[in-house]
TrEMBL record:
InterPro entries: Methyltransf_25, SAM-dependent_MTases_sf
Transmembrane segments: none
Keyword Methyltransferase set for record: yes
GO MF entries: methyltransferase activity
Span list, region Disordered: 83-103
Key words of the record: Methyltransferase, Transferase
Superkingdom per UniProt: Bacteria
Entry's Gene Ontology BP terms: methylation
Record protein name field: Methyltransferase domain-containing protein
Stretches assigned to the Methyltransferase domain: 49-88
A Pfam entry, by short name: Methyltransf_25
KW Methyltransferase (keyword) present: yes
Length: 103
């Protein structure tokens, strides 16, 4: 069962990466704003874990607020998407902060 889930995310990852930020009204207007409202605006000096990071939207938000972020996911493809999003920020990072954990 677990392998089927990993395989499904591998197949969906590119579409998810390209469309989830703009095509999902639930994410854009409800879930994400509500979650960000719970976090401090300035997270400088704090460390955050983005478990199940998917395409890295929360990773990006946490980094933009100054946090040091460790992002993990079962899907190697989603970690790759998170890395691509992170590279667009053009700030130094520790490559070990993005991990694929297949267990």
């Amino acid at each position: 069962m677990k392998q089927k889930i990993i395989d499904a995310y591998a197949k969906l990852s590119l579409d998810y990466e390209k469309n989830v930020d703009t095509e999902s009204g639930f994410n854009a207007f409800y879930e994400r704003p509500a979650m960000l409202e719970q976090l401090p605006e300035n997270m400088t000096g704090l460390t955050a874990l983005d478990a199940g990071c998917a395409a890295g939207w929360y990773t990006e938000q946490l980094l933009n607020r100054g946090a040091s972020v460790t992002a993990i996911d079962l899907s190697a493809e989603m970690i790759a998407a998170t890395r691509r999003r992170r590279e667009k920020l053009r700030t130094p990072h520790d490559p070990s902060a993005f991990s694929h954990h297949p267990r």
